[in-house]
Write a structure and sequence with these properties.
The protein is an alpha+beta fold. It has 15 helices and 15 strands. The chain has an 8-stranded mixed sheet with strand order 1-7-6-5-2-3-4-8, sandwiched between helices.
């Protein structure tokens, strides 16, 4: 029972050696993540893997949303009180921000209690609808997360924001450390309206909220928002097609010491691919010369990064799906080229896939710093996870949409780092 207490598990959780392995590994490596925390992390990753932005847009009829143009008559300034007052203040702020002419970034921060607000599903729908209208308007959201929350609540919160992250219009930040254990604050600032509120911890129902359209007050709250951003850290860097050059610069920095120590791939990584095989695959997929040049340059860059890492004596663990020739009847695997934003798949034939896999296996067997696992029940089909242990985690989503997240926040990064490889589909 003392072992159960130490690992935060019940005796039933530790009935077999396999069940003991994960919590023991987490404890020994200092992560102390519970089974529930690891499951919350896997749920977040699975949601990212399976999320389809096109389907989501159709489901909420985002394409049909019309940004209203009828002026919203907000008083120059107004005060609100209590939980219901906060809800009304938030919705009035969103209405004013959506209907204003300004398209500058909207700043969002709150360390207010969430439980009583989350219970009101109707308010949550209206709040998300307001954010969707801001995104439809083309506004960027500077979202400063309050991460001083229970881990499971944090993961669920991030999971609920996945649709917003997938638009690429979110700049996510966080503040390190505990900001205050007595006062709680809320800041919402747009070009033309601001919301500020305050309550005492544990007495959310006594909070007060000030919504103002006064230009001088809005400017002051904007300065304070900028001061908060000055203290904030990037929760993650988000790369879309418009950020291709920035993403390529990031990939080049991998050779400067931020080596990839673990790679979970939904296809074959670029390693071991010969120029002749690459040209054959590109030719059979009807690639233009420009596309072929991009592919060749990217494969060469990945191989150069790997060779520099091996020269530095840094090991790399790779997990790939165990794809058989009969699996090609369902869907042909594609070259792992999501950082290039080509807008289409470049697929293997069964013979080409086999040749690349054999070349990769040969490369691994020739270097003791490389290890390779073929997972017959790979959990992820539409993304890769690259881990630079202790530095960042790179989640590379191939399609729907093609987007990349480089996570810096230590708590989330460590949770992903310490999931046991290989990761199996439930």
């Amino acid at each position: 029972m003392s072992v159960c207490h130490l690992l935060g598990c019940t005796a039933q959780d530790l009935a077999t050696p396999e069940q003991i392995l994960q919590p023991l590994r987490s404890y020994l490596f200092g992560t102390h993540l519970s089974k529930e925390q690891l499951e919350a992390t896997r749920s977040l990753l699975s949601h990212i893997d399976s999320f389809n932005l096109e389907d989501y847009i159709k489901a909420i009829r985002f394409d049909e949303l019309k940004v209203p143009s009828v002026p919203f008559l907000l008083p120059q300034q107004k005060y609100y009180y209590g939980v219901s007052g906060q809800q009304q203040a938030e919705l009035n702020f969103l209405k004013a921000a959506v209907l204003s002419k300004g398209t500058g970034p909207v700043f969002l921060y709150s360390d207010m209690e969430m439980a009583d607000m989350a219970e009101d599903k109707e308010f949550s729908k209206k709040w998300m609808y307001g954010l969707a209208l801001l995104l439809k308007k083309g506004v960027k959201l500077q979202y400063v997360h309050n991460l001083n929350r229970p881990f499971d609540e944090l993961m669920l919160g991030l999971e609920s924001l996945i649709p917003l992250y997938m638009t690429g219009q979110i700049e996510p930040y966080y503040l390190s450390g505990v900001q205050n254990e007595v006062f709680q604050h809320i800041y919402r600032v747009s070009d033309s309206v601001a919301l500020f509120g305050e309550s005492i911890h544990g007495y959310h129902e006594d909070g007060w909220y000030h919504v103002t359209a006064n230009k001088e007050e809005v400017a002051r709250y904007r300065r304070e928002a900028d001061h908060i951003l000055g203290h904030a850290h990037s929760l993650m860097d988000i790369y879309q097609e418009k950020d291709t050059e920035s993403l390529q610069r990031f990939i080049r920095t991998i050779a400067n010491g931020d080596y990839i120590t673990e790679l979970i791939s939904s296809s074959l990584p670029p390693y071991g691919m010969t120029t002749a095989l690459m040209e054959e695959i590109c030719r059979e997929n009807g690639c233009t010369q420009a596309e072929q040049d991009k592919v060749l340059n990217y494969i060469n860059l990945c191989e150069e990064n790997l060779q520099q890492q091996l020269s530095a004596g840094i090991p790399l663990t790779i997990e790939i799906p165990d794809i058989r020739e009969e699996d090609f009847e369902k869907e042909s695997p594609a070259l792992n080229l999501s950082p290039l934003f080509l807008g289409r798949k470049i697929s293997y034939s069964p013979a080409q896939y086999r040749r690349h896999r054999e070349a990769l296996e040969k490369q691994v067997s020739a270097n003791e710093l490389l290890s390779l696992t073929a997972n017959p029940k790979a959990a992820f089909r539409n993304m890769d996870i690259c881990i630079s242990k202790g530095k960042w985690v790179w989640i590379s989503k191939h399609s729907h949409p093609n987007i990349h997240f480089v996570i810096h926040y230590s708590k989330l990064r460590e949770a992903i780092e310490n999931m046991i490889l290989p990761i199996y589909e439930e």
